[in-house]
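Subject: for your reference before the review

Hello V.,

The reviewers asked for a structural picture of the protein, and I figured it would be easier to keep everything in one thread rather than splitting it across files. Below is the amino acid sequence we used in the manuscript, unchanged from the supplementary table.
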Amino acid sequence: MAPNSPLVPSISLSYPAITKQAASTMDGIHTDVMSTAFSDRIMITITQGGRLAQWIHISLDSPNPNFADQYMPSGDDEDALLPMAHLSPKTLLGGSTSERETLGHLYATQIATAIVTRNPEEKRTVLVGLGLSKFEARREVFYDTVDLVMKCL
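And here is what came back from the structure prediction:
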């Protein structure tokens, strides 16, 4: 088929996929973050010591398009840091304990919320790969990690 044939769809995809990286030391541990923006997904990896131990998938689509507005940020500063209620993370791999899975879901939901807050029209699925050496819920480390991810988006 000829490239300009009506049977060949013309798709404008950026190739190669856009990739950004950032690194920082958090709680004394070197942390690398990489985001890769595909046409249908945003893949984010957060690694310490070059490891990945958990993969989480989260769709940015609203479950019911008629109620999409209720999930958008209200502009209230008090609610600005809360994850959006319609985001439902799903562990694909890893998360061997309930604490690890819960904290991984918290990271993925907060990252997805930040993505949607930055671009309310974003509908791609977010795939988060985590490889944290210490899996503990410390506020400073959590917010520093999410901030580092935002530098890559």
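For the response letter, the relevant points are probably these. The first strand starts at residue 18 and ends at 26. The chain is about 25% helix and 30% strand.

Happy to draft the paragraph if you're swamped.

O.
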